[in-house]
Amino acid sequence: MKIIRDNKAATFTLVPVDKSERAVFGHLIPKLKNGDTFTYGGREDDGEYCKVRLHFGSKMVEKVERVGGITVHRGVEEGGICLVLNGSTKKDKLEVGGMRNSCYFGACSPIFLKTTKVSGVKSLVITLKLCKHCKAPMISMHACEWSTCNACAEKCQHTYKKGMVHGAGVGDMAVGEFCTKCGRGKPLTGNEPKKTQAQRHLDVERELGVHVMYHNSSATPSQIVAAEKAAGVIPTK
Fold first, then answer.
1. In this structure, is the dihedral angle defined by the CA atoms of residues 164, 170, 172 and 178, taken in order, positive or negative?
2. 146 CB burial (10 A radius; 0-12, 13-18, 19+)
3. Which contacts qualify for 67-76: CB closer than 8 Å, 24 or more apart?
4. CA–CA separation, 14 vs 174, rounded Å?
5. pLDDT for 114-135, tens place per residue?
6. Where are the beta strands (DSSP E) in 57-120?
7. pLDDT digits 0-9 by tens, 147-172
8. Which end is more exposed in the chain, N or C (fewer Cβ atoms within 10 Å of the end residue's Cβ)?
């Protein structure tokens, strides 16, 4: 699938590329009307990238399973049409990954806006969420997470609070100041020292009392920082 991002309009155009994608679009398009929403159905691994499942017209049902002697309750989408976003090129795959982050962190239900044609191929134009203040479309992770578009954030009378700030990557967290109304970070002065990921994690532990663990190492942030200083990665003065 080809993914065309329009930052100004805050939309994605989804263009089917292969026969199976065109078949799904053929079933889906006649059923869609402006404002219809998709249910985010999670991600699937695609090597170092991911695919994203969007469901339309489905119903969430509870499934109960026994896994290793444990009863597991989980929600499963049944019926409807499942649209799998699988990027055709590296650029497309990166866009799919960004859409996944916005949907996951921003609790988005992607919204169908209209159909269009790209090189003669009927395609879908969607946005991820609407601003809670002005109903403008949004696609960026931070805008979706706080349900506030950039234009409204610029008008915000910011009230900053120190706490956990995060990016989209695994372990991408630090201590910072953010607005409790629009979620935007406090502007930096430019004089802040650059820190390694381990240093940022150590700040999180010391200032917020959040314990940081690594799935691929038993080392603590404090131990990693000490090793980085010994190796000269972090200046000691």
1. negative
2. buried
3. none
4. 34
5. 999 999 999 999 999 999 999 9
6. 59-67, 70-78, 81-85, 111-118
7. 999 999 999 999 999 999 987 676 78
8. C
